[in-house]
Backbone:
């Protein structure tokens, strides 16, 4: 039975969406609404079979108005005949804590837990709830489901998620490594298994989701073994505006020296650090590389730190798992920045990684094997598709309930 399913990724000022015909996995429409709450909000939608995206600028005061615009567009462009055609909606949630190891229907309990976990993902979980409540009002008869970025990592062994602080903080406050981008890493793992025609439980790979936010995962026998992000999405490698892993005493030092509040430090580490903080130029790697090519010393330093952090993580996971079959690059930087990929792979030659420049340069946003046939470790570029994973889970939950 074919049905219409929506995948939704709501932020505090944005709403991304894809509309699928399932189980055929046909994308009927996709798009995003940006700058929600402003007079110059941007609504964009791309329709099946059309190469051009339809965009317009208009005032969208809140998520309810954004959802209304979206629903009107789906009917106007005949994606659906009526809103009742939309049978299921999957909502991306960044933090599910230890409560969720898989996608679940939205009910009073699951919604309360997502709200409880807002303190662990203050930039993300509140937006997901706002999106849910707006869409649930517009689509009251649809099956609404949560898909969690942390769920994929519930297979990690204790040694890889317990922090070396007093154990009581894990028992009492659930402080542990949770990770993020799990929906993306799950897709990359299963997609590589499909491409190579291997059972997913025989795959040992290192997946690199390198975007504005970034995480690297060791996948052993098809399951998450360790992830670079930690208790919150602030941990791990250097990111666009996030610092990643630093000496925790730096936080104490800055609080004592400058009398920063917790909120001020949170802003510094989450929004003013990373590529932006070191370069002083931009949180966008493209801008950093351009400035680096022009000889800007801080841009050159930023580039070097970023590559070094990625190499360190990949090499560490290779050793931790006792080897790996493949490395996968994905997300904005991983999919589109051939310079970063080449530099990282060149520094991994000690692991037997061989990526000829001719295999890598000018490859953007498409599935491609980048390594040579004699490379000890395969290297792949695979565009991520979190929306498809969410739609698959929402379809499964809907059909299981029928």
Residues:
């Amino acid at each position: 039975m074919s049905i219409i399913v929506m995948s939704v990724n709501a932020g505090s000022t944005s709403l991304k969406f894809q509309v699928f015909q399932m189980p055929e996995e046909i994308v009927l429409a996709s798009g995003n609404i940006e700058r929600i709450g402003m007079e110059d909000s941007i609504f964009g939608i791309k329709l099946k079979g059309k190469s051009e995206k339809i965009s317009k600028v208009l005032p969208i005061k809140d998520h309810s108005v954004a959802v209304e615009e979206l629903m009107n567009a789906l009917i106007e462009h005949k994606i659906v005949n009526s809103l009742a055609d939309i049978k299921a909606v999957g909502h991306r949630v960044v933090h599910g804590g230890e409560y969720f190891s898989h996608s679940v229907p939205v009910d009073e309990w699951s919604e309360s837990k997502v709200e409880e976990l807002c303190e662990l993902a203050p930039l993300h979980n509140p937006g997901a709830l706002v999106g849910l409540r707006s869409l649930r009002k517009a689509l009251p008869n649809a099956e609404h489901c949560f898909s969690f970025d942390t769920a994929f990592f519930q297979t990690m062994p204790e040694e890889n998620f317990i922090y070396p602080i007093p154990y009581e903080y894990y028992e009492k406050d659930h402080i542990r490594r949770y990770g993020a981008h799990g929906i993306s890493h799950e897709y990359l793992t299963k997609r590589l298994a499909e491409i190579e025609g291997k059972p997913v439980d025989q795959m040992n790979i290192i997946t690199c989701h390198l975007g504005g936010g970034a995480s690297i995962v060791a996948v052993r026998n098809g399951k998450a073994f360790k992830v670079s992000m930690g208790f919150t999405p602030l941990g791990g490698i250097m990111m666009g505006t996030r610092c990643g892993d630093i000496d925790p005493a730096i936080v104490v030092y800055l609080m004592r020296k400058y009398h920063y509040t917790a909120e001020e430090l949170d802003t510094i580490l989450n929004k003013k650090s990373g590529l932006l903080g070191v370069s002083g130029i931009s949180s966008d790697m493209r801008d950093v590389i351009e400035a680096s090519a022009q000889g800007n010393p801080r841009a050159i330093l930023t580039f070097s730190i970023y590559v070094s952090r990625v190499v360190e993580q990949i090499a560490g996971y290779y050793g931790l798992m006792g080897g790996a079959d493949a490395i996968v690059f994905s997300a904005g930087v991983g999919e589109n920045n051939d310079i970063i990929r080449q530099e990282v792979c060149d520094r991994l030659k000690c692991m037997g990684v061989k990526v000829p420049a001719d295999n890598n340069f000018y490859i953007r946003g498409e599935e491609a094997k980048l390594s040579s046939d004699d490379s000890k470790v395969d290297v792949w570029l695979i565009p991520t598709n979190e929306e498809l994973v969410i739609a698959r889970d929402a379809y499964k939950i809907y059909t299981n309930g029928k």
Remarks:
- The chain has two domains: 3-148, 198-381.
- The longest strand covers residues 38-47.
